[in-house]
Amino acid sequence: MENVEWLQKGLVVLLSIAFFWKLIRYMWSFLKTEKDPVRVLVTGAAGQIGYAIVPMIARGVMLGLDQPVILHLLDIEPAAEALNGVKMELIDAAFPLLKGVVATTDVVEACKDVNIAIMVGGFPRKEGMERKDVMSKNVSIYKAQAAALEQHAAADCKVLVVANPANTNALVLKEFAPSIPEKNITCLTRLDHNRALGQILERLNAHVSDVKNVIIWGNHSSTQYPDVNHATVTTSSGGKLVRELVADDNWLNTDFIATVQQRGAAIIKARKLSSALSAASAACDHIRDWVLGTPKGTWVSMGVYSDGSYGIQPGLIYSFPVTCEKGQWSIVQGLKIDEFSRKKMDATANELIEEKSLAYSCLN
Ligand SMILES: NC(=O)c1ccc[n+]([C@@H]2O[C@H](COP(=O)([O-])OP(=O)(O)OC[C@H]3O[C@@H](n4cnc5c(N)ncnc54)[C@H](O)[C@@H]3O)[C@@H](O)[C@H]2O)c1
Ligand SMILES: O=C(O)C[C@H](O)C(=O)O
């Protein structure tokens, strides 16, 4: 009998401790003024995009002006000294939101507990090269880094693959990190989306805040399909379709598409280096919208795992229009697809199917 009483008393004491502990934590969450830091991995951090993106992240461009960050920077041994230089500059910039920098050539140390992984590391395309030329080198890197992320990153880590071939690298990463939810692995087509917006803005002399809902379908390559059929512009007399305001179907169906598809190559030709500041900015846009949500009535383009929407083969990483809420993306459903669009969407899907089998042949 006495034993039962002691057990009851012990249980009451334990429950009271648990209750007060929860209460203190709850009150603390209101009292503390600063959020816990988010750990952001940037691979290839000593490279061009790396150099452009790390100050953006440290300034709050990616996660918001109230979100402290700890940067994890990874590069390979030959770039170790340059990587250390980037770390020194980050320290010298004294960013208020930057709570720490881990600069390393050890992939395990780099991936430890990261919440967001921006995968930029790889070999970039040079003038005259096709993405397929860099396939072999890059897919092996993504196979190896998949394992490190799977074992050492935070369980809910969101992954954005930037390095080319971006869709197929993301697919390889997904296949070799089976325990990372497929919803958490994406690739960058936001740069193409922003490029499409840029072309429309120039043509209409409009402001970026007034144009929305362009779409990039498919591969981040010259077969991608930039689609303006659902895009709108806010005017003084209400929302209008981009196609109506541009009033030049010939331009929209030919030069506009070709310009967006070839923009990466045009930048490489001009700079002798691939796009870096616009790629870094687009990667920040991609993560910001994924984490913080897309504005109501607005979608963005993201390379995501196909669930068969719009007749696209399931299991490809394909760029779709998506909305984001509470850290989750969903493919926009029910858009009307005309015959012209259908052909272009299928052509870029077919290229991804070919890339997938080429990637697997490189890995064998
Ligand atoms: N998706 C897009 O919209 C988009 C846009 C622009 C560039 N890119 C691609 O992004 C990638 C990076 O471009 P960049 O201009 O910064 O190239 P870069 O050559 O300047 O930088 C790449 C960095 O990756 C490092 N690296 C190589 N192997 C690595 C590995 N195994 N682990 C970690 N780091 C490694 C290199 O040492 C280098 O510092 C390229 O593949 C490029 O084609 C994609
Ligand atoms: O085309 C490239 O390799 C560079 C990059 O993907 C880009 O679109 O700017």
TrEMBL record:
Residue numbers binding substrate: 125, 131, 164, 195
Enzyme class: oxidoreductase
GO BP: malate metabolic process; tricarboxylic acid cycle
Stored Pfam families: Ldh_1_C, Ldh_1_N
Keyword Transmembrane helix among record annotations: yes
EC number: 1.1.1.37
This protein's UniProt keywords: Membrane, NAD, Oxidoreductase, Transmembrane, Transmembrane helix, Tricarboxylic acid cycle
Gene3D superfamilies: Lactate dehydrogenase/glycoside hydrolase, family 4, C-terminal, NAD(P)-binding Rossmann-like Domain
GO molecular function per UniProt: L-malate dehydrogenase (NAD+) activity
Catalysed reaction, written as an equation: (S)-malate + NAD(+) = oxaloacetate + NADH + H(+)
Transmembrane segments: 6-28, 40-58
Catalytic residues, chain numbering: 220 (proton acceptor)
PROSITE patterns reported for this sequence: MDH
Similarity comment: family membership: Belongs to the LDH/MDH superfamily. MDH type 2 family.
Protein name listed in UniProt: Malate dehydrogenase
Organism: Juglans regia
